[in-house]
Write a structure and sequence with these properties.
alpha/beta; 7-stranded mixed sheet; single chain
Length: 310
């Protein structure tokens, strides 16, 4: 039996693994994909202290190596279900088709969040055939072509800036009349607008995907107030309209807010004793790598203190 099981190997989970192992705890971090979580899908990170610019993949690898150096074990398995009641917590993972039970005295939930979909017809059908949720992952496939980004926050503007270096034309579609991204990002975007590499399509929403030969061939956007429709001839669209928490496995076991995020206090304690939450999965004001790392450190610190006292 482990002292702590960390579910998720994004920045929050890896920070929890690092701080937990340095506190002398037996820690296993389980992750179904790859170290770094959503951050690993970011081409260039400029706002993580200590790094002027670093790729998400590199940062995730460094975080994993550091956690492992101090004794945390990071394993690539899919979590099938969890039983968080009682003093001994149980996490059931799928190991090559066989369900394996992991036990621990504490669990840190760091599953993160996933990109939100537009909800437009044929969105799932065209995913990977022009519809994407990660410009860093799929932007190179659209080199020299016209593309669109949907959203108005930091993620959307960052995606548009990245694509402006690759694509022939980038349309940024946002339902409001102004962008919500940080001023420094908006300033950079406006440079691209003035250079005619980016066109803003504000007060508009995507209402239809145009399919051509089984792939995305365009978007139909509609004015929020005017209801006027316009078709954008694009080969790709990158959806960046927010995230949904990955909390299906703990629904009904810990308290969630109205949006599905785990409710936790400043010590990362959830409504269940011995269960903590860290990173994007947690109800919070700001979801950034730096806040995720802080959450992970606090969760491990809280878990260590509780385990020592029991």
């Amino acid at each position: 039996m482990h002292d702590v099981i960390v579910v998720g190997a994004g920045p929050a989970g890896l920070a929890a693994g690092l701080y937990g192992s340095r506190a002398g705890l037996s820690v296993v971090v389980v992750e179904k994909l790859f170290a770094g979580g959503q951050a690993a899908q970011t081409n260039e990170i400029e706002n993580y202290p200590g790094f002027m610019a670093v790729s998400g993949v590199e940062l995730g690898q460094k975080m994993r190596a550091q956690a492992e150096k101090f004794g945390a074990r990071v394993v690539s398995v899919n979590v099938a279900r969890m039983d968080l009641a009682g003093e001994v917590k149980k996490v059931f993972v799928d190991d090559d088709g066989e369900e394996v039970e992991l036990r621990a005295r504490a669990v840190i939930l760091a599953m993160g969040a996933t990109p939100r979909k537009l909800g437009v017809a044929r969105e799932d059908e065209l995913r990977g055939r022009g519809v994407s949720y990660c410009a860093t992952c799929d932007g190179a496939l659209q080199a020299g072509k016209a593309v669109a980004v949907v959203g108005g926050g930091n993620k959307a503007v960052t995606e548009a800036l990245h694509l402006a270096k690759l694509a022939r034309k980038v349309y940024l579609v946002h339902r409001r009349g102004e962008l919500r991204a940080d001023e420094v990002l908006v300033a950079r975007l406006m440079d691209e607008v003035r250079a005619s590499r980016v066109e803003l399509v504000l007060d508009s929403v995507v209402v239809e995907f145009v399919e051509v030969d089984g792939r995305l061939g365009g978007l139909v956007v509609e004015g929020v107030e005017s209801s006027v429709r316009r078709e954008l001839a694009v080969d790709g669209v990158f959806v960046a309209i927010g995230m949904d928490p990955v909390t299906e496995l703990v629904r009904g076991q810990v308290d969630l807010d109205e949006s599905g995020y785990v409710v936790a206090d400043e010590e990362m304690r959830t409504s269940v004793a011995g269960v903590y939450a860290a990173g994007d999965v947690r109800q919070k004001v700001l979801r950034q790598i730096v806040t995720a790392v802080a959450d992970g450190a606090i969760a491990a610190y809280s878990a260590a203190g509780s385990l020592r006292n029991n």
